Amino acid sequence: MNILVLGSGGREHTFAWKISQSPLCNSLFVAPGNSGTLEIATNLPIAVTDFEAIKAEVLKNNIKLIIVGPEDPLVQGIHDFFLNDEALKDIKVIGPQKAAAELEGSKEFAKEFMMRHNIPTAAYQSFTPENLEDGYKFLETLNAPYVLKADGLAAGKGVLILNDLDDAKRELKEMLVDSKFGSASAKVVIEEFLDGIELSCFVLTDGKDYKILPTAKDYKRIGEGDTGLNTGGMGAVSPVPFATEDFLNKIENQIVKPTIEGLKKDNLPYVGFVFIGLIKVGDDPKVIEYNVRMGDPETEVVLPRLKTDLVEIFKAMGNQTLKDITLKIDERAATTIMLVSGGYPEAYEKGKEIYGLDTVTDSIPFHAGARLEDGKTVTSGGRVMAITSFGQTYEEAIKKSYQSIDKLCFDKMYYRKDIGFDL
Ligand code: AMP
Ligand code: GLY
User: Fold this and answer.
1) CATH class name, domain 123-191
2) Of the bound ligands, which one is closest to the alpha carbon of residue 153?
3) What are the structural domain ranges in the chain?
4) CA of 193, closest atom in ligand 1
5) Which ligand is nearest to the CA of 157?
6) How far is the CA of 415 from the centre of ligand 2 (A)?
7) What is the C-alpha to C-alpha distance for residues 370 and 146, in angstroms, rounded to an integer?
8) CB of 298 closer than 6 A to ligand 2?
9) Nearest CA, atom 5, ligand 2
10) Could you tell me which CATH number the domain at 2-97 has?
């Protein structure tokens, strides 16, 4: 079978790496891909939201399965585009249809879904420019810190956590009235602040059944000790050491089951990954957010631990036979550490040559913002490379990743030296 992965990050390199190990995969394509995917697949220079260009390549290359990496094409309806096209309707797409992708595309939609299906989450209310005054009044009823969320997609920047009531009111006005996040903040969800430790749960579903992948924890802030600006993710660990069997059972019964049942009850067809961002409050899990795709860099630790053939899993998802699949998981811990361009997540330079890749033997370097230029691998983004390692313990895995990183360099390379510090 010929397969296409959409996206260009470390997540997509990891998908391509795993898929390329399957005997069920004939030709593998990645659009647009990066220097890592180029080594194991054919890169197609097309944008992930250019559906017509994707259609042309799919037909030309006889592609039968598409894995959608990022959320944008899903929220814009790529799955529906395929289903509604006579020439494409039998091609399997891994990723939900537009209606269900609203779980990530709209915070309010996600909150209403959780309320409807009794899924534990923070109390909230949502506001539009017309009821700004009610928003101020609602803020006054809450205790600090105040959590404001732009309803729509805002490239991971749409959540503000503020300690001061006046700041919260000012930001609320900027979001609603001054379009701080463009149309994404035309509606704002204000939430109760939840105090606890975060982790992520990844679920595969074919719309009927589900399978739970290993948990992971990512490190979102740029600075050590979880300080500074939010990023796409600076590192990840799997499994999450504090997720005991009892706690995992709570996640499955209180959150995963009602989520999958809720999708069915609401008639939201879903073939794909459900990424549930959780927070452990006391001994109980609560949902912070849904994403309708895998996480990045969580994929770089979750998929390497999966021993089952990923293409076999995708085929089963496409054929609604996921219940027949047994997931085999590597018992070892996996960690990944992200190398980023100095300055990220603000302005940074690109085009810096990456040295030492050939000398890394104990870790897997998953390329993210990296491309091949005149035979050299150079930086092309903020997050450049995720260095994944295995260990009997997460401490051992982390140590291996740092030893591999010692062999790598590029101008102004930065990484967090404290991944796993809080476990
Ligand atoms: P989100 O984009 O919804 O994942 O939010 C980004 C980050 O904000 C999360 O990863 C949490 O660290 C934090 N956050 C979001 N909602 C809450 C909440 N209700 N209480 C505490 N922290 C939150
Ligand atoms: N690492 C968080 C995300 O992929 O959204």
Assistant:
1) alpha beta
2) 1
3) 2-97, 123-191
4) 20
5) 1
6) 17
7) 37
8) yes
9) 295
10) 3.40.50.20
Which residue's CA lies nearest to atom 15 of ligand 1?
288
Which is the closest atom of ligand 1 to the Cα of 158? 2
Instruction: Indicate if ligand 2 lies below 6 Å from the C-beta of 108.
Output: no
Whether 380 contacts 323, CB under 8 Å? no
| Torsion region of 124: left, alpha or beta (phi above 0 gives left; psi -120 to 50 gives alpha) | beta
Q: Specify whether the CB–CB gap between 96 and 270 falls below 8 A.
A: yes
List, for residues 256-292, the tens digit of each pLDDT value: 999 999 999 999 999 999 999 999 999 999 999 999 9
Find the length of the chain.
423
Q: What is the number of the ligand closest to the CA of 230? A: 1
Of 12-16, 46-50, 184-188, 210-214, minimum mean pLDDT range: 184-188
Q: Find all residues with CB under 8 Å of 26, minimum gap 6, and list them.
A: 1, 2
Ligand 1 atom nearest residue 107's Cα: 3
Partnered with residue 190 across adjacent β-strands are 125, 148
Residue 222 and residue 383: Cα distance in Å, rounded? 11
Taking CA atoms only, the protein residue closest to ligand 1 atom 1 is: 289
pTM of the model: 0.95
Does 2-97 match 123-191 in CATH topology? no
**Token pair listed for 394:** 């997460």
d(CA 311, CA 257): 24
- Tens of pLDDT along 180-215? 998 998 999 999 999 999 999 999 999 999 999 999
Cα distance between residue 362 and residue 250, in whole Å: 36
Strand 124-127 versus strand 42-43 pairing type:
unpaired
